[in-house]
Amino acid sequence: MNRFWTYGLYGLALVCLIGIGLFSGRFTLYLAMRIMILSIFAMGYNVLFGRTGLLSFGHGAFYAGGAYGLALVAIHVSPHPLLGIAVGIALASLVALVIGYFCVRHTEIYFAMLTLAFGMMVFSLIWNLREITGGDDGLVGIARVPLSLGFFRIPLAKANHFYFFVLTFFLFALWTIHRILHSPFGLILSGIRENDRRIEFAGVSLRNYRLAAFVISGAFAGMAGGLSTLLESNTAPFSAHWTNSASPVLVSLIGGIHTFAGPVAGSLIFVVLREIIERFTHNWMLWFGIILLVIIMGFRGGVVGALSGLLNRKTRISPGR
Amino acid sequence: MLQSLVHVCLAGLSTGMFIWLVASGLTLIFGVLGVLNFAHGSFYMLGAYCCFAVLRLVGENFWLGLIFGPLCVAAVGFVIERFFIRYVYHLALPYQLLLTFAFVLVFDDIVKILWGAGSIGSPVVPGLSGSVSVVGRPFPVYSLFIIAVGPLIALFMWAFLERTWWGRIIRASSSDREMASAIGVRVPALYTAVFVIGTWLGAVGGGLAVPYVGLLTPGMGEAIIIDAFVVAVIGGMGSMKGAFLGALLIGLLSSFGTRFIPTFDMFLTFILMAAILLWRPQGLFGEKA
């Protein structure tokens, strides 16, 4: 595809996204927002997973960090949504910095198990510290107050207003992560994934770069957590549980972990497929599990990988990045 | 005070032995095949449900259920290894983990379809129900039974792995797969056999869990698998001795935690796991990777 078509497609996608916000019903809006929030979570996660080659099972903790950061600020300080999200991202990054400091000492399975342990520690704290976090009830009644920006006040309470709020963050995350992945920093991260020994010999501190990738992914998890709290108007303790930490892994794998669009496509497929399957049967996990089996046994490049493979074979263009 | 301490210890021992029953199969599979099996919790759950089903079928006999239920699950384990896991040994860790995770999702829903989404009450075990008095306070007989069964299974596995020809072959393949196949071991068939044994152990753990936990729920596998992971990590991935002692440690820690600092009891387990991973990533008894 040449440049013209690429920008044409981006433009078309943007028009579609704005169109959804203007003309859709509440249910479609809700689904679209869920997809975008999951995309932010998965795109950030994939900086660590697909790019740096570290499999974390603790990112639910940072998602919850964003969610509870926003909720606590909304309840105790001020319900301003931007302030809440900023605090949520800050809290998630801080937790990621502390946890990451310990976790990046190891790689592979030990890294996965360490992040699992730390993630479940955060879960157990949220679950048991009832006075602060509401325990198993979570924090409820987080209102979407109007967004006041000096002279403007933008109402967010309605779904179609809030949709544009989420869309802004989604585009911001998309742009930021694209910049990160295509910067020299991003190249070093993929170098670490391919051959960490060589990168180390080039004089790069593996630990610091891994930690940086960890905190970046944690920050985006926090953003997703904060947005989802505003969307659902409550926080769930199980967002810190390892089952939630597994969702960005699944989404990235479905879409394709070594592609930029993979996590977004994966989120779209994940949410839409779930809706479709649930129309027909209560057993969506069974079908989702079977689809996952098929992907792992046959299409390990994910959907985006398989599609671009198909496209490249047809048009005989050498594979791009 | 002493009375309460004894009871906390006993509760810890029974919890530990119970986790060991599940972790033993997980550790065996990880040690030989190198696959960390998320689906082990599902085998535990399937074991519990199959025991229950057999028990219903043959007329409320717990022991027949415990014999035939896990055999059905072992057959499921055979299919999974032979047709799925065999093809991912050479792949990166995330794919192996996610393949087994996919089975967790599938089995959770299959159990819901076959036995319903609600909880099922546990059957009564003849001769092991009720409680006896231990230092002047009642303690469930079944927990004492679990405390006895745990070391028995440990002994059986030790004898199997260290004292039989089969055990030697398994240990040889686990330490050097290529060398073992060079001297004529059919490694793929052996892997299948080990996976089936591991599955069977998980299912037996599930079967024994039924009267201990008291309820059968479709999500019961997810709760136990993390405990089993913790134990496998603490003891050293692949070390049987480590898993046994790790299970005891976790059991006692959680029982003392629940008794004295209930708010942080789950926290303690995971901080122990993280501390051991940071201090000795290979675990207490694992060989250096």
Describe, in plain words, how this protein is organized in 3D.
Chain A is globular, with a radius of gyration of 20 Å. By secondary structure, chain A is mainly alpha-helical. Chain A has 14 helices and 2 strands. By secondary structure, chain B is mainly alpha-helical. Chain B has a single domain (2-279), classed as Orthogonal Bundle (ABC transporter involved in vitamin B12 uptake, BtuC), CATH 1.10.3470. Helices cover 74% and strands 4% of the residues of chain B. Chain B is built from 11 helices and 4 strands, in the order ααααβββααααβααα. Chain B has helices spanning 2-33, 40-57, 62-83, 93-115, 141-163, 165-175, 177-182, 187-213, 220-235, 240-260, 265-279; strands spanning 120-121, 131-134, 137-140, 215-216. In chain B, helix 2 crosses helix 3 and helix 9 (220-235) packs parallel to helix 11. The mean pLDDT of chain B is 83. Chain A binds chain B through residues 49, 55, 102, 105-106, 108-110, 112-114, 116-118, 120-121, 123-125, 127-129, 242-243, 246, 249-250, 253, 257, 282-286, 288-290, 292-293, 296-297, 300, and chain B through 36, 84, 87-88, 91, 93-95, 97-99, 101-106, 108-110, 112-113, 222, 226, 229-230, 233, 237, 263-264, 266-267, 270-271, 273-274, 277-278, 281.
Layout of strands and helices, then pairs:
The complex is a heterodimer of chains A (about 325) and B (about 290).
Chain A: H1 3-23, H2 26-51, H3 59-76, H4 81-103, H5 108-128, H6 130-133, E1 147-149, E2 152-154, H7 159-181, H8 184-194, H9 196-201, H10 206-232, H11 242-255, H12 262-280, H13 284-298, H14 302-315
Antiparallel strand pairs in A: 1-2
Helix pairs in contact in A: 1-7, 2-7, 2-8, 2-10, 2-11, 2-12, 3-4, 3-5, 3-10, 4-5, 4-10, 7-10, 8-10, 11-12, 11-14
Chain B: H1 2-33, H2 40-57, H3 62-83, H4 93-115, E1 120-121, E2 131-134, E3 137-140, H5 141-163, H6 165-175, H7 177-182, H8 187-213, E4 215-216, H9 220-235, H10 240-260, H11 265-279
Antiparallel strand pairs in B: 1-4, 2-3
